[in-house]
Design a protein that fits this description.
- By secondary structure, the chain is of the alpha+beta class.
- The chain is built from 36 helices and 24 strands.
- Strands 1-2-3-7-4-6-5 form a 7-stranded mixed beta sheet, sandwiched between helices. Strands 13-14-18-15-17-16 form a 6-stranded mixed beta sheet, with helices on both faces. Strands 21-22-20-23-19-24 form a 6-stranded mixed beta sheet, sandwiched between helices.
- Strand 2 and strand 3 form a beta hairpin.
Length: 952
């Protein structure tokens, strides 16, 4: 084994947890190891430098990623030798299908594939890979395909390192493409889901125009035509060409010992075959010639929009660092960028710059939304004026240096914890970089000069660009009709393979779950009767966060949403918005405001060396924020556009209708300010509301390097704590609507591929911890995760949905005497709606019992407790939320104690007592023309809902 340990420059801002060591196994596989003992978990990933660009427009890279969850010749099968005969026949039939054009002949072949698949399912153990990952400490198993790479990842408990390595290396040796027919149908569902998103087809069209003839021009998921004609033989060739050791990387970040782990990785991952990927010449993308024009269709009336698309930089390009600063001069987190100011001063409704650096090409786009009364041409001229300022170096040294500090803060923050750092590692490896390269990028950012930025701006923001104008309209969609296939239901759903039994022989050192400790993990100071300060040490860098969480949320005061869009646009009595934000930017600090159901949160970030000054600025803003009625027009325009856009999204409409079915007149979509009310509102009214909200009991969360007493002293000096006098009513309770008979609430949206389905059942209170814990285990069994009844019966076996979920939802523990509810969700192709409802309804009305699954469910709960242990910045908020909800210690402690003694009998008893036989109501949003409405009425009286019924 060859070992490469790059020298990483250590500063006071870089601790041991950000050290990354690189090793090359004997077969040439690259391994990156990052030890971090701050959380009791490990992030593990296999990154393959192959994505959709390596199989353009076919979808092979993406659906191969799906098939990697189906197992191998050892995992997921009762008898692979017998199964293989059928799988080989299926592969041959798919090759035949791809060569056949006649519709009737294709139908015959597909029926033959279905019959063979049903026979092959006799040997299948579905989701065994997922079950084994869960059994050995894993959670959040997932994968993703991009243009340049594919990544397979999950979290797991450290004591199962050997099992994780064994499973994830075995997975790469001989993957088997079983149950392909049903999985391909699931990919169709995924495509339908994407195509129903408002912007998806416009983005795909833009990518095609921008990148052609490069493979980036094609969608990752592939064309509908190619999805109809998959070849398993081509998928096997793709695997053999790209899934070789020299083209793959193994990334581990978390709670492990490198010296102990290395021999395990060598023994397991060195089995992956050697190989070298044949080099392919990159397709050159021609430069734009002058102002090339195009249009894209977006189904949003009223709104105008234009975009300027420039050729950007690919990953690893030396101009990237200077380019990022140039972008920051246009848009930045403090709202001081030149495009930001166009929005703040209401010269445009929106203006933003964004882009992406792929491995072989990059793009940068500036999107501008003119005011409703302005033209696209006038908005474009404004953008060009601001671009010319950057190109001429018309920005101060103060702004330039502050943006370098902002870049540093962003880099340091993304390295803080296992979750965010691991994503950086995946990205770096996929781009062909090393950890040392990343450190050098930080050094280059520090050495950057103003002249560097000006040169880059002139190089890329030139006269050759793509001009894109938005048209109102829709692109034609490719309809994939529901296949007339028999469900592929494996007989051995709860069996175990011989391979699984071999894994059981690997010894394991059992480690106790790690719980959040309310006393030891944070310091708690009660500054006033209504103010509590939590202090958590930051041992990684010198960046602080201070969150002021006021105990009033959107349920109690719906207008708080308006505050989040208005207050950050204001200055104070003594400082304009521009002066205030420039002062913050100079300090390297930010202020943000947000509202959710339970709280209004004022977030302050910055470097600890500027803590005192930043807090003085924040305190002055809180006390003296000054209304500006001119800024209100931004709220009005935003609300007008949002209202037009809302009913173009089936997901948002379904969420609103479901909220109405649950809460009736108390739905947030009926209590929110109407458009007419927003037009009448005045700035003084919102500022007064802000002052009243910030008088409510406040929980403060500081995370940084300063001592608790110093933080408390500065807070007391800078913030008017004596004005925080009102008690918090959070969490606020809303009564559920109960129904006497089954109903189906239906809202019609034409031109959608998928119908959104919710199920709702009002249930009795669960007033003891034991009952609540039974509900938790029932939810995991019924509808949470890949091994749940819903996932297997609806998606895995019948391909009736891409996403499914079902769970028993509980009020906070302090409201345990209040009713609970059962909810379920799925989205399905319109013509599959009745079939999907039949399966879901059958599961709810007569839940199957699978005792073999209970041990894995309990294991999953233990895994989540450790794998979701919060990062250091999030610990105090987790504790405060637990306390608000009525707990005096980490609730996972009693949960694991209880469910460890539970069995299938407990789940079945809970189901019979709290779910079975209760009135069930469905909510459906979609295209009624593609549903048999008479059959739909068998699930309950159909109520055709109008917009005004559930949306204000």
């Amino acid at each position: 084994m060859t070992v490469h340990v790059p020298k990483i420059k250590q500063t006071s801002s870089v601790r041991a947890s950000t050290e990354v060591h690189e090793y090359i196994l004997d077969n040439g596989l690259t391994v990156w190891l990052n030890e971090d003992h701050s959380q009791p978990k490990v992030f593990g990933a296999v990154v393959v430098k192959a994505g959709s660009k390596d199989s353009p427009n076919t979808g092979i890279a993406h659906y191969f990623e799906h098939m990697m969850f189906k197992g191998t010749d050892k995992i997921g099968t009762m008898d692979y030798a017998a199964e293989k005969v059928l799988l080989d026949a299926i592969a041959g039939k798919y090759d035949e299908l791809a060569r056949t054009k006649d519709a009737k002949a294709r139908a015959v072949i597909q029926q033959a594939i279905n019959e063979l698949s049903v026979q092959a399912a006799e040997y299948v153990i579905p989701n065994e890979f997922d079950k084994l990952i869960t059994k050995y400490g894993g959670s959040k198993l997932n994968a993703g395909t991009s243009y340049d790479y594919t990544v397979y990842h999950n979290l797991f408990l450290p004591q199962y390192m050997e099992q994780w390595a064994e499973l994830n290396s075995e997975r790469l040796l001989n993957p088997v493409f079983r149950m392909f027919q049903s999985e391909l149908e699931t990919v169709y569902e995924e495509k339908n889901r994407r195509d129903d998103m408002i912007l998806n087809q416009a983005i795909e069209r833009l990518m095609e125009i921008y990148f052609r003839p490069h493979p980036y021009a094609y969608p990752i998921i592939g064309s509908a035509e190619n999805l109809k004609n998959p070849r398993l033989s081509e998928m096997r060739k793709f695997f053999e060409a790209y899934y070789v050791s020299s083209n793959m990387g193994l990334i581990l970040s978390g709670d492990f010992d490198t010296e102990r782990v290395l021999p395990v990785l060598e023994r397991t991952f060195s089995r992956i075959p050697r190989g070298v990927v044949e080099p392919v010449s990159s397709v050159k993308i021609r430069p734009f010639r002058g102002r090339e024009k195009t249009t894209v269709k977006i189904p949003l009336p009223l709104l105008k929009a234009v975009a300027l698309g420039f050729r950007g930089v690919p990953a690893n390009h030396p101009d990237q660092t200077a380019f990022d600063v140039a972008v920051g001069i246009l848009n930045n987190s403090n709202g001081t960028g030149y495009l930001d100011k166009l929005m703040v001063n209401r010269r445009v409704m929106g203006a933003m710059v964004g882009g992406e650096s792929f491995n072989e090409a990059g793009f940068i786009g500036i999107v501008v939304v003119p005011r409703l009364s302005h033209t696209c041409r006038s908005a474009e001229k404004m953008i060009w004026r601001e671009l010319e300022r950057v190109k001429k170096g018309d920005f101060t040294d103060e702004m330039f240096n502050s943006l370098k500090r902002e870049q540093l803060r962003r880099h340091l923050t993304e390295l803080e914890d296992i979750d965010s750092r691991s994503q950086v590692l995946v990205r770096l490896f996929s781009q062909g970089k090393t950890w040392a390269d990343y450190q050098e990028e930080l050094d280059r950012a520090e050495a950057l000069t103003k002249d560097d930025v000006v040169k880059v701006a002139n190089r890329y923001f030139g006269d050759n660009y793509l001009y894109v104008r938005k048209k109102t309209g829709r692109y034609a969609k490719t309809h994939l009709a529901k296949p007339d296939f028999a469900p592929i239901v494996p007989r051995h759903a709860d069996a175990s393979s011989a391979y699984s039994k071999q894994l059981d022989t690997i010894p394991v050192q059992e480690v106790q779950p790690r719980y959040v400790d309310f006393e030891r993990d944070v310091q708690t100071l009660h500054l006033t009767p209504r103010t509590t300060l939590y202090v958590t040490p930051n041992r990684v860098n010198h960046i602080f966060t201070l969150k002021l969480s006021y105990g009033i949320g959107l349920i109690e005061e719906p207008r708080l949403k308006l505050l989040a869009g208005y207050i950050p646009l204001l200055g104070t009595k003594s400082q304009s918005f521009e002066a205030l934000r420039m002062r913050l930017q100079t300090l390297g600090s930010t202020l943000d405001l947000d509202a959710d159901k339970h709280s209004l949160t004022f977030k302050i970030t910055g470097f600890d060396r500027a803590f005192d000054e930043t807090l003085e600025v924040a305190g002055d803003f809180l006390a003296n924020v000054s209304p500006d009625d001119r800024k209100l027009k931004t709220l009005v325009d935003d609300a007008k556009v949002a209202e037009k856009a809302f009913f173009k999204s089936n997901n948002e409409v379904a969420e609103a209708l479901f909220e109405y079915v649950q809460y009736g007149s108390l739905s947030q979509y009926l209590t929110k300010p109407s458009f007419k009310e927003i037009k009448r509102i005045r700035g003084r009214e919102l500022v007064d509301l802000f002052h009243r909200a910030t008088q409510v009991a406040c929980t403060m969360h500081y995370c940084g390097t300063l001592e608790a007493e110093k933080v408390a002293e500065q807070i007391s000096r800078s913030l008017a704590l004596e004005k925080i006098i009102r008690p918090s009513l959070s969490p606020v309770w809303r009564d559920f609507v109960t129904y006497e008979k089954p109903l189906v609430f239906f809202y019609h949206i034409p031109d959608v591929f998928q119908n959104i389905i919710y199920a709702y059942m009002a249930c009795k209170p669960l007033d003891t911890l034991k009952k609540r814990h039974e509900a938790d285990l029932f939810s995991r069994y019924f509808g949470e995760g890949m091994s749940s009844l819903m996932f297997q019966e609806i998606r895995e076996f019948r391909s009736l949905a891409y996403y499914t979920s079902g769970a028993y939802r509980l009020p906070p523990y302090c409201l345990a005497d209040k009713p609970s509810r059962f909810v379920a969700y799925l989205s399905t192709q319109c013509d599959k709606t009745i079939d999907a409802l039949n399966v879901l309804n059958a599961l709810i009305q007569e839940m199957p019992e699978r005792p073999e699954r209970i041990e894995a469910l309990i294991r999953a709960s233990i895994n989540l407790t450790n794998n979701e242990y919060p990062a250091f910045r999030d610990i105090s908020a987790k504790i405060a939320d637990y306390r608000r909800d009525g707990y005096t210690e980490d609730p996972n402690r009693s949960l694991l104690d209880d469910i460890g003694r539970m069995s299938m009998d407990d789940i079945a008893r809970f189901y019979r007592s709290h779910v079975q036989g209760r009135t069930l109501v469905y909510v459906i949003v979609g295209n009624s023309r593609k549903i048999d409405m008479r059959r739909l009425a068998t699930f309950g009286d159909v109520i055709r809902v109008k917009k005004r019924d559930f949306y204000r």
